Amino acid sequence: MRILTQIGKSYKSRKLFPNSLSSYEWGINTIRAHLRTSQLTAKSIQKAAFKEYLLTLIQDKADTWLDYYKTTNTKSHLTNALKTYALADSMIDFMRYEHVGEGSKLFWRQKTRGMYERAIEASYLAGDAEAAFRFFEKSKAVLLSDKLNELGANQQLTENSAKRQRTLRDSIANLQNQLASLPANDAKRSGIQRRLEQFNDDFEAFRKQLESTNPAYYRYKYDNSTPTIAEFQKSISTNGSGGHTAGFVSYFVGDSAIYAFCLDQKARLVRLSLRPSDYQSLASEFLSLCADRSRLNAHYPQYRALAHRLYQLLWKPLGMTASRVIISQDGVFLPFETLLVQPNQNDFLLKYHAISYTYSANFLAKNQTDLAPSLRQGNKLFHRSFVGFAPETFQPSLRQASLKGSVAALEAVEEKFWWGKTLKNNEATKAQFMRYAPHSRVIQLFTHADADSTEAVEPLIYFHDAALRLSELTQADRFAAQLLVLSACKTGVGQNQRGEGVFSLARGFAALGIPSTITTLWSVEDQPTYELTKLFYHYLDQGLPKDEALQRAKLDWLNQGDAADALPSQWAGMILVGDTAPLAMDGLQFIVLGLGLLGLGILGGVWWWRRKK
Fold first, then answer.
1. Between vectors from CA 57 to CA 53 and to CA 60, what angle results, nearest 5°?
2. Alpha-carbon span 8 to 24, nearest angstrom
3. Which ranges in 214-343 belong to alpha helices (H)?
4. How many CB atoms sit inside 10 A of residue 399's CB?
5. Per-residue pLDDT tens digits for 361-416
């Protein structure tokens, strides 16, 4: 099979496409006969050992069909390319079950990125938005599961389940290797194939069981489903109020091209006229300017030029008309609100769109269902409306600067809620967070955080007495919160992995079931953060969706401040990640309102009875 793959690549390099395809087909028929299957499908491929070789063959065959189309402009060749990429994608789904460890991450990072870029290119040429949407989503899911599992951002397997998983994996791998070592006509093959099929069925049953017993682990390790465009559009159409459906933009930064999948009135795929290498340098320079007040103040003309250029390259070609837009980024995480529509004035994109962010469309859609227990649990009577933490000072061993004014800001926020609890100064401990946070509908943190995660260092969030590591969150129950506000330094930025965007402490909380997080992209200053947080809650209290509430807060800040306050370093660091729906009322509010209406009814009845009498 490897030899035939190399022969096929050799023919392809000489543009002898029929010969190339014939070689690939010969290789596929060879493995198909060995597996004793009439048709090579994702199901039949499960029996094969050395799937990486077969995946390479199928990817190369798909690339050949795509290049054949580019040479001849024959539409059937493009159709065949998309079908073959879809087969490769289905292989990746179950191959990931068998891969663990650092080698797994490196393999998927290197192996799949180029394949998905070519698949998206084929979708673009075919005008197939549905296929493009699927490949966008699958590319963003490949690395996310490994990273979340590694840092303990989701519930871990029980000892028995972990043992069962290892046993099934080892048994399947052993049988696959036995099958690969036997000649096609060996009498032992039938028995081994039957045992392999049984173990594959047992593994499927095990995964289905995890879906109900450990949904967080199942989601990030085994759930490869993606919504259709219609299903996703339906999910975001209910993600707000007032009938203003949010638009959606997802970026894919490949090695040779940048694509944007856009969804407002209709779905479309846009190929941007910007080279990936230029994007990386422009975006990195822009983000470093936005995050540094002194640099921004000294080089504001440079900022304006960059902000307008990025607007023209990344946003204007999309033609987005929705007033609310959800963005799934790839590569450098940019605060799109800071892009300038006009080059020589502070005409921020913030004025035209309420912008929120998500790790992927799939992540957002599933937040609407089983990843958002708050939507089911948040109305329970004994879940607090609000819990807030403001460790204004920290133990000397933590080496964190004091946060003067955080207690006053927290007290102002608490006034917006019916049944809240605030933990200030030395009461704001890690133990108190683990006690109260999982059972509160809104969690507010005025503190420091370090989310510049590396392969060896976990993100941290600081309380008065100690730092909380991301892996320690697995010791808590599933969170019931509808919203977490991390008014802290660098809670949104983490290590930038190609294919998964920004990994962060905020994502760790999202994995625990919190559907919405307000987080920060850089080291924000205290006073602007306090004021923006209070303004955000003010508009949230009026029943606005979270994205519009944050937009209004930032616009108020700009309108009320001076020129220094208009610097993006002051206001643009706070972003919303996840669900944008307004806060639902808690159970206590329902009871109080119900009792109030009952009381009014009784008083009205007494008044009517007396008047009649």
1. 135
2. 6
3. 215-221, 229-237, 276-291, 293-298, 300-310
4. 9
5. 887 877 655 444 444 444 444 457 899 999 999 999 998 888 889 999 999 999 88
Burial class (CB in 10 A: 0-12, 13-18, 19+), 69: buried
Structure tokens at 299: 């080089």
Which tokens belong to 418?
Answer: 């019916």
- Sign (positive or negative) of CA dihedral 405, 406, 411, 415: positive
| Closest listed residue to residue 317, CA positions, set 271, 349, 376 | 271
Q: What one-character-per-residue DSSP string does 458-514 give?
A: --EEE-SS-EEEGGGGGGSPPP--SEEEEESTTSS---EETTTEE--HHHHHHHTT-
Phi, psi of 577, rounded to the nearest 5 degrees: -120, 125
Q: Give pLDDT tens digits for 176-207.
A: 888 878 887 788 888 888 888 888 888 888 87
Helices (H), 334-441: 361-367, 374-377, 406-414, 430-436
Total residues belonging to the chain: 613
**Among residues 289, 306, 330, which one has the least CA distance to residue 502?**
330
- Hey, CA dihedral for 233, 234, 239, 243, is it positive or negative? positive
Tell me whether strands 354-357 and 324-328 are parallel, antiparallel or unpaired: parallel
- Choose among 162, 170, 113: nearest CA to 142: 113
CA distance 111 to 133: 20
Distance CA 219, CA 148 (A): 11
- In Å, what is the CA distance from 488 to each residue of 55, 514, 564? 44, 17, 21
Q: What are phi and psi of 399, to 5 degrees?
A: 55, 50
**Tokens, residue 368:** 């609407």
Distance set, CA 535 to CA 242, 443, 526, 539, 557 (Å): 21, 16, 14, 6, 8
Backbone angles phi, psi at 120, to 5 degrees: -65, -40
State which H helix or E strand residue 450 sits in.
strand 449-450
Residue 415 is encoded by which pair of tokens? 């006034």
At 60, is the secondary structure helix, strand, or coil? helix
Q: Which two tokens stand for residue 42?
A: 């994702």
Rounded to whole angstroms, what are the CA distances from 333 to 100, 209, 330, 386, 533?
28, 36, 7, 30, 22
Tell which wins on pLDDT, 412 or 450: 412
Cα–Cα distances in Å, from 497 out to 143, 332, 557? 8, 10, 33
CA nearest to 524, candidates 449, 582, 419, 442: 449
Tell me the torsion sign for CA atoms 132, 138, 143, 145.
positive
Q: Record the pTM.
A: 0.84
Q: Which of 77-86, 117-126, 462-471, 489-498 has the lowest mean pLDDT?
A: 489-498
